[in-house]
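2 proteins. here.
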Amino acid sequence: MFSASKLTDDQKSALRLWAAEGASIADLQKRLKDEFEIGITYMDARFLVLDLGIELIEPVKDEKKQDPLLDNPVPPGTVSVTVDNISLPGALISGKVVFSDGETGIWMLDQSGRPGLDPDTPGYEMKKEDIAEFQKQLSELVRRHGY
C-alpha cells in the first residue's frame, strides 16, 4: 500500500492542483505515473486522496441529456410515446411518454396486459385530447412490437 508520506511537498501540491482543475482519481493516478514515475493502483490513489484531504470536483451530470425524450423535444401540443429497450420489472413492455403540456411519465403493460401509467408529477391529470392520442400511439407501438 502506497503512503502519502512517500510524496514530496511538490508532488502533494501538484495533486491538489490537478484535483482543483477537475481531475478524477484515474486522472491523478495517470499523472502521477506520467509526471513523477510513481505507479500506484487505483485503490491507492483513492486512499491518497483521502489521506491528503483532497476534494475532487464532481462533474455536473446533466440528467436531462440522458433521457432520449428530452434530447428530442416534443413540439407543443403533441404527445410522444417511446418503448424502453429493457422493460420495467414485472412489465411485458414499458416506456416513456411526454404529453402536450410537457409533462412526462412512465407507462407499462403488465403480464396480464393491464396498462399502467405513472406520471412524474403526482396527481397529474391528462387532457382528454392527450388521453386519446396516448392510447392511439400506445396501441400502435404495442402492435408493432408483437403484443
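next one coming up
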Amino acid sequence: MSQAELSLSLQFADPRHRALLPRHKVQRWIRAALELPGEITVRIVDAEEGQALNRDFRSKDYATNVLTFDYSHEPVVTADLVICAEVVEREALEAGIDIAAHYAHMLVHGTLHAQGYDHEEDDEAECMEARESEVLMALGFADPYAKT
C-alpha cells in the first residue's frame, strides 16, 4: 500500500456522518490511492451545496456523490474532493452496502481523479475501475465492481 505524504483538510458542512469519517480513516483511504504526495481538502456537503457545485462547474443540475477539483497532478497532487452525504447514504442503502465502505470508495475514486484518472472512455474506465478495486480490496473492502 502507498505511503505517500498527505496534507489533509477535512471539513463537514453536513455533519450527519462525522462519526463514520474519523480523520485517521479518511487519511488512510486517501493515502492508499495516492501515488505522489498530496494536499487534499475533503468537504462533506449537503445536497443543496452538492447540487450547486455540480450545476456551476459541470452544468449538471443535481447533487452527485463526489466531485473532484484537481489543481495539480505533480510533483504534488493538489485537489478538493466534495462528497455529498445524502447521495452517498442513498447509494449505499440502495446497493445494500455499508455507508463507510461507500465513503471509502468515493474517497479513492476522487483521489484517482485528482491524479488524472478518468472514466469517460471505455479503456479509461476499465483502468480506473481496476485501480479502485485494487486499492479498496487492499484496504479490506469488497470490490465495488464485482458482478454478483
